[in-house]
Design goal:
This protein is α/β, with parallel strands linked by helices. The chain has two domains: 29-313, Glycosidases (TIM Barrel, Alpha-Beta Barrel); 316-406, Immunoglobulin-like. It has helices at residues 35-38, 42-45, 52-64, 81-93, 105-108, 118-131, 156-159, 162-183, 196-202, 205-210, 224-238, 252-255, 260-275, 304-313, 396-406, and strands at residues 29-33, 69-72, 97-100, 141-142, 194-195, 214-218, 241-247, 280-285, 316-323, 334-337, 341-344, 350-355, 364-368, 375-378, 383-387. It has an eight-stranded parallel beta sheet. Helix 4 (81-93) links the parallel strand 2 and strand 3. The longest helix has 22 residues, at 162-183. It is elongated and about 85 Å long.
């Protein structure tokens, strides 16, 4: 839709659960993950000031894509705090909030650090937060233990310790909430991303309620439509909204090999399905670079999928009206683009419709209403005004046309 002369109307809410207001974005929370660089290279690059140029370029590209947040996976150990700070500072320079998705290295044994238990993790968490309050600002998300099932005592599916796992997450959340309450910063703390099967086991309605009414899953599936179906099913079971903490393609074991065009088409189908899924509160694409799912190649060049993500992260908001021959608003008229983006007019015949900002895509809108001939119009103006011709052949239609002509 590069030819659309339309103003982008973007707004980021403090909370992603704002269904009571007019939509100006498909999702209020939109993130891209940097784990392959912000975590995996933490020890290698922490002593390399020149790597700041790479961080700057990566964060700038994420900001330009329309993301509201950048997901940073740097460990929380003191050793890595200077490296974490470099990523956070780059995010602030580009107007991005941060989703902190690191952990203490000992939880999973990253970088050959000795493994730690739950109590040690809680102690480390208190120490880290109290030592580094300046890292955080309003609107951030802080996850103390992403994919928590991969470390500590182990996966509750294997250990059977479902209650212990739940209680640990609740205790971690209590520590973080108390810290941010004390500092007066509005930071979300309950987005404990995990495997979807673990989430189905852990998130009963009471646990969901205590964890911000949100279930966060790292979910990779072959079918784009399954991504949306699984999220909706988990929402129904848990009683909460769903955040996709990680998603993307291709994962070779799941999707096989994909061309650049096939990756872009998979992502377009997934985002189209997700924007029609009411339970989705936000999403984080994994990853910016360095993985099979990367949006940018190793030289920093965007792949086709990066343009697709940008189209949905920076949508366009169309506004308009649908009227009959006599200037009266037509209520309940259907306004649609393709088959997955549609709305209906209100009682006054007015409408608004979000569309992905896709370069070179079809740029015609279709409007239809009962007893009126449908019309397809080009989308070339900020406000679209459409007049439909009545197909009603009753005796008074000619009279109304004649009366209308007298008023001209």
């Amino acid at each position: 839709m590069g030819g659309f002369a339309l103003r982008l109307e973007a707004a980021v809410a403090a909370s992603p659960s704002s269904s009571n207001r007019s939509r100006v974005a498909f999702w209020d929370f939109r993130s891209i993950d940097t784990m392959k660089h912000s975590r995996d290279l933490a020890r290698e690059k922490q002593g390399s000031p020149s790597y700041d140029a790479v961080i700057e370029k990566e964060v700038a590209a994420i900001a330009e894509s329309g993301a509201t947040h950048v997901a940073i996976g740097t460990p929380y150990d003191e050793e890595f705090v200077p490296y974490l700070s470099r990523w956070v500072e780059a995010a602030r320079r580009h107007g991005l909030k941060v989703w902190f998705r690191g952990n203490f290295s000992g939880w999973e044994g990253w970088f050959d650090v000795p493994r730690i238990d739950r109590e040690t993790h809680l102690q480390n968490l208190r120490r880290f937060l109290n030592t580094h309050p300046s890292l955080f600002e309003d609107g951030d998300v802080f996850t103390s233990c992403p994919e928590c099932e991969n470390g500590g005592p182990g996966d509750p599916r294997q250990t059977g310790d479902v209650e212990g796992f739940r209680n640990f997450l609740l205790a971690e959340n209590d520590v973080a909430q108390e810290f941010f309450r004390t500092t007066g910063k509005n930071v979300r703390t309950a987005w404990f991303s995990m495997n979807a099967d673990v989430a189905r086991l852990i998130f009963d309605p009471e646990t969901t309620r205590r964890l911000d009414n949100t279930v966060t899953i790292d979910h990779y599936v072959r079918s784009p439509e399954a991504l949306a179906r699984d999220a909706e099913a988990l929402s129904q079971k848990s009683g909460g909204s769903v955040v996709l903490g990680e998603f993307g393609a291709p994962i070779p074991d799941i999707h096989g090999k994909m061309t650049e065009a096939a990756q872009a088409e998979w992502l377009r189908a997934a985002l189209t399905a997700l924007q029609n899924t009411p339970s989705i509160a936000g999403l984080n694409y994994w990853t910016h670079a360095g993985s099979s799912t990367a949006l940018w190649d190793d030289s920093g060049k965007p792949r086709q999928a990066a343009s697709v993500l940008r189209a949905f992260y920076r949508p366009i908001l169309l506004r308009g009206s649908v009227r009959d021959e006599w200037g009266r608003g037509i209520p309940s008229a259907r306004v649609f683009w393709r088959t997955s983006f549609e709305t209906t007019t209100d009682t006054a015949g007015n409408f608004s419709l979000l569309l992905p900002r896709e370069e070179g895509s079809e740029s015609r809108l279709t409007i239809s209403a009962e007893k009126f001939a449908p019309k397809t119009v080009p989308i070339s103006e900020e406000v679209i005004r459409v007049s439909l011709q009545s197909t009603d052949s009753s005796w008074f239609t000619p009279l109304l046309v004649w009366l209308q002509s007298l008023g001209k």
